[in-house]
# Entry
Amino acid sequence: MLMPKLTLPLSLFTLLCISLPVSQTLDGQHLDWEAYDPPSSLVVPETIITRAKFPFIDVHSHQWRMADQNLSQLASEMDEMNMSIMVNLSGRGGQQLKAMTDNVARQFPNRFVVFTNLDFDNVDEPDWQEHALAQLETDFKNGAKGLKVYKSLGMRNTDTKGNRVAVDDPRLNPIWAKCGELGIPVLIHSADPKQFWQDHDEQNERWLELKTHPRRKRSDTDPAPWEQIMAEQHRMFKKHPGTNFINAHMGWHANDLEKLGQLLDDIPNMHVGIAAVIAELGRQPRAANHFFEKYQDRILFGKDAYNPAEFHTYFRVLESDDEYFPYYKRYHAFWRMYGLDLPDEILKKVYYKNALRIIPGLDSSLFEKD
# Structure
């Protein structure tokens, strides 16, 4: 039987495409998708912002050497960016935290804040709870302004029997309650982007990141389903309405702002930090603008890994109305972004007002009196 005239050329084209390697073009040149990253030919205004419009508080930084570090260079870099206060989430606790807060007090007592950390392994030991609460009390007296909980809780921490410690493990309830009693927030990072649990194939937006960082791949049994870890976190928030929680990385829902809004509506003591998810906001400027307007009192500025040049992208997304500009790590985000052009009052809340309200003991004199 003869094939229809229109079918033959399409079939030949399909066979030709199948016979060629993915990275090979018809003229014989090779170019992997990973290497394909041409500069945009789009001619539009560019706003390079190296200094934030208003002084800001970075609620999500990691400074491992703060116990013996000369902080002058760091403070100078902060001044150039208009960062008034940096929150170091890596206080560790105990004598290490005290060494950090003492060093800060000697050099720049109003510019740096330290959060403590707890070890959530072996929570079933008879004296674990007593020791953890005692450390939290002591660290608070030594200057800790909050508790940072790493993603190891719910992912890697285990009890003495080797069982995973869930984020909402009831044995941890006194810890969250104590933070509420002391008036200090809990900044918590649970799980990772949902795509780390999905198949590592051409349908996965994090394909390149998983290729370059294969140890980030997860599954429903390594360590548990993503939805389960997220549900544990949200249940824990609800159990402790007297404690303020800052959900790091917007709780990995920056790509689903409708869902994140529902969670914020349902959990009044939950706030979100924008660290490491600015690329998600920048690719949905209209939806993100609506979100910032509605939840302007619940969003805090944060960056995560400290690199001064990378802050410029955050400023550009939040402050400018620029179009179609790149993120600084292609394996995080291969797409282009757009500026949100946030109103000044919302910018002030995100940059410093919300943090001043939630984190105790910050020097408000560093900011405008309004």
Remarks:
- Residues 44-364 form a domain with the TIM Barrel fold (CATH 3.20.20.140).
